[in-house]
Design brief:
The protein has 467 residues and is an all-alpha fold. Among the domains are: 200-288; 290-372; 433-467, no CATH class. It has 26 helices and two strands. A two-stranded antiparallel sheet has the order 1-2. The two termini are 42 Å apart. GO terms for molecular function: RNA binding. Keywords: Repeat.
């Protein structure tokens, strides 16, 4: 593999295992020892490790660079910022300056972002001085970073001064100042900045609407959302904007509008977004008085989504806060929730503590979970309970028989077959359904009752011969 193909492979790398193999090839082929490609390749590797969330591996790549240049240092600062370590980013910036490198605009932007996230105004002012000394203040990206840094530190006077002195202001400059006023809970000034913007994008609209909601002005948030649709020919949506508008719906009781947004969430496949899901639950919970059916629906959803903690909390609230007496269906949901997640002993404890006798469905749920997670001892208990309640359920016998066979417990497997024979229990045959010219036909295994044409029998025979 040559250097060009290695770079292409690294660019499209999506998994940690693949990345480690590429890294190993870089070392084996000696590319990281060549001065003319070491910096570029190392930065690519560092960036790739950052993308898969492996900060320590990325640090090791940087530490192996001989005499890192300004680009490499910038990659390191951005790595720490991306990993939520702005203080380490500032430390790296200090080391870079200590060895005598002259900062460029990219390094300065990373340093200013670090000062903003750390709320380190003193160092932020020092970096601002470097901007002026190195004549970088005309760069709009640097100007935007300065505004953001001062805004995050709550110094809106300096943020406004930097903004006013900028020769060129793009939509990000305006949005940075807007966000600053929102952080300071100054909704009026934020609105003035927003109204004065020559152009707006989805980020600026989202910032303004979110600020209205957080500032206790949900009606104003609705007006802004409506205006957004009118100005831009229909609202463009993102997860953050949906969360903000759903919160406004919850505050004013706009359930109908919230349900419309729920439809948008489904169309955009955002149901699994945690923030969006929480906002929808908050909206519905504030406007809908839960009953037994509501609780059952939400518990079922928690079970299928694997939300164990949330399901247990909801079940406890049902009893302690809403004073509801759980029915057998609610207990069944909790057993299914715990069983799916592998908490089999907990599921068994729930069954044993039930104030009502568990039915076959609950024991069957536990048995299925034991089969999935390979707990044979508990499966035996659950299986015997199902057989006691529904002795003609052939599926339970077969499930136990399969588990015994997998565990090489041939004696127990034989006993299961014997029980089936003595009780004249038959396994329900497998079934296939075929739609032929609008007519649905069912085919059961070893079925001799269905009138099948001779041509079909001949065709099936030929298929079997050639399979």
């Amino acid at each position: 593999m040559n250097y060009a193909s290695l770079q292409r492979t690294l660019h499209s790398c999506a998994s940690l295992d693949q990345l480690k193999r590429i890294h190993a090839q870089c070392v084996t082929l000696g590319f990281l020892n060549f001065r003319n490609v070491q910096q570029t390749l190392s930065c690519r590797l560092l960036q790739s490790y950052k993308n898969v969330g492996k900060t320590e591996e990325a640090e090791r790549v940087f530490n192996q660079i001989k005499g890192p240049d300004i680009v490499s240092w910038t990659c390191l600062l951005n790595l720490y910022l991306h990993s939520g370590l702005p203080s380490k980013s500032l430390s790296a910036f200090s080391r870079c300056l200590h060895i005598g490198l002259r900062p460029d605009s990219f390094l300065i932007v990373a340093a200013l972002s670090s000062c903003g996230h750390c709320k380190d105004l003193v160092r932020g002012r020092v970096v601002h001085g470097m901007v002026l000394r190195n004549c970088l203040d005309e760069n709009p990206v640097v100007g935007n970073a300065l505004i953001d840094m001062y805004c995050r530190n709550g110094v809106m006077g300096m943020a406004t001064l930097v903004f006013e002195k900028m020769g060129f202001k793009d939509v990000f400059s305006w949005t940075s100042l807007l966000n600053g006023y929102m952080l300071c809970n100054n909704l009026n000034c934020a609105r003035e900045v927003f109204d004065a913007m020559p152009e707006r994008n989805l980020v600026s609209w989202t910032a303004m609407i979110t600020g209205c909601v957080k500032g206790g002005a949900p009606i104003q948030a609705f007006e802004m959302f409506k205006r957004m649709g009118a100005d831009d020919g229909g609202p463009r949506l993102c997860a953050d904007l949906i969360v903000a508008v759903l919160s406004a719906c919850a505050d004013v009781g706009a359930l109908d509008f919230g349900q419309c947004l729920h439809g948008c969430v489904k169309k955009m496949s955002l149901e699994l977004d945690v923030a969006v899901s929480n906002a929808m639950m908050d909206m519905y919970s504030k406007r809908v008085t839960p009953n037994e059916v509501t609780m059952l629906s939400v518990l079922t959803a928690c079970s299928h989504a694997g939300l164990v903690v949330e399901g247990k909390v909801l079940f406890n609230r049902m009893i302690q806060c809403h004073y509801m007496k759980p029915k057998i269906e609610h207990y069944g949901c909790i057993v299914d929730l715990l069983g799916r997640a592998g908490f089999l002993e907990d599921a068994k404890e729930v069954i044993e503590m039930m104030p009502i006798n568990p039915d076959a469905t609950i024991w069957r749920s536990l048995l299925t979970a034991c089969s999935v997670h390979g707990n044979l001892s508990l499966a035996q208990i659950a299986g015997k309970k199902v057989i006691e309640i529904e002795p003609n359920d052939g599926g339970v016998y077969m499930l136990l028989w399969n588990m015994y066979c997998v565990a090489n417990m041939w004696k127990e497997a034989s006993e299961i077959r014997k029980l089936m024979k003595e009780g004249r229990v038959k396994k329900r045959p497998g079934c296939s359904v075929v739609d032929v010219n609008g007519v649905v036909q069912e085919f059961f295994a070893e079925d001799t009752l269905l009138q099948v044409s001779a041509e079909l029998c001949h065709l099936l025979k030929r298929i079997k011969e050639h399979s």
